[in-house]
Amino acid sequence: PQVNITHSNSTVSAVLPTGESVEILLYGATITSWKDAAGDEKLWLSEKAVTDGTKAVRGGIPLVFPVFGTAPDHEATSKLPQHGFARTSTWEFLGKSTSESSETKDGGDSSVKLDFGLSDAELSEESKKAWPYSFGLIYSVTLSKDGLTTTMLVRNEGETSWDFQLLMHSYLRISDISAVSVTGLESSSYVDKVASPISTTTSPDGPVKITGKTDRVYTPAGGPSAPVAISEGGKKKFSIVRDNLNEVVVWNPWVDAKSIGDFAPADGYKQMICVESGAVKGWQKLEAGETWEGGQIIGV
Ligand code: TA6
């Protein structure tokens, strides 16, 4: 049996023969749903998420490029909105590729890769004015029974160098934030954006637990290939391995969620944790014609 792919003018969805599924909005190339074979949703999406293309989606996996947050002291990206334009641009579906593997008993498709593209040619005038560089992005979403892989290829199509930040802003669904712990961040330094003033501190040797508003940028000591694991009640729910993305952002708005207009229900912060893979410390520089690639594998 084959993967079932449906493509409308606003979304692309795929269902594996084993039942796993993924749905991606062309708006922002935002993954809005990822379900396991049992049909359980792995991502958190706000009940007030706007998905009509008028604002960034609150939940799923929005894409952050070419700037993480805002960078007032970085001239080239200082005029961009928070998290840049990738999550609020309409991407193009470039196509799919499926792969069979001997391990599936009836030789059915065991994974599907969906490719999406964005370039300066498709940018709004406003975004082009704010960031006037020639670029090409190819974003690949690969669904298999073991997990979800998201990779980004960034190319400088211009004549001069520019630099960027990239992050995949994953809202992971969990049942009870008070039972969650994150491992793999031990003894790494992190920037604590909730502390005032913002401070750089060292993570405790044990797992990280979320006990209040949390907004931290970690640089895991083990490097990208050391897995970060999100467990709940002692049971591993997700593992994240990165490629060329050295930072991990951990965010939970806690009770401040009630002041985020499109975050619903207000106590939904108890059912989500953002563990975001990115290259957000400093800037990745691309010379004219150069290409950069980075990605993550979220295992379940
Ligand atoms: O997840 C890290 C973060 O930068 C937080 O500081 C918070 O602002 C979050 O992103 C959400 O940002 P958004 O622009 O989507 O409201």
TrEMBL record:
Catalytic reactions of this protein: alpha-D-glucose 6-phosphate = beta-D-glucose 6-phosphate
BP terms from Gene Ontology: carbohydrate metabolic process
CDD domains with a match to the protein in the record: D-hex-6-P-epi_like
Superkingdom of the organism of origin: Eukaryota
Gene3D superfamilies, alphabetized: 2.70.98.10
Enzyme class (EC, first level): isomerase
Keywords for this protein: Isomerase
Alphabetized SUPFAM superfamilies for the sequence: Galactose mutarotase-like
EC number(s) stated in the UniProt entry for this protein: 5.1.3.15
Active-site positions on this chain: H169, E276
PANTHER family, alphabetized: APOSPORY-ASSOCIATED PROTEIN C-RELATED, GLUCOSE-6-PHOSPHATE 1-EPIMERASE
Family from the record: Belongs to the glucose-6-phosphate 1-epimerase family.
Protein's job: Catalyzes the interconversion between the alpha and beta anomers from at least three hexose 6-phosphate sugars (Glc6P, Gal6P, and Man6P).
Protein name: Glucose-6-phosphate 1-epimerase
Source organism per UniProt: Glarea lozoyensis (strain ATCC 74030 / MF5533)
Taxonomic path: Eukaryota, Fungi, Dikarya, Ascomycota, Pezizomycotina
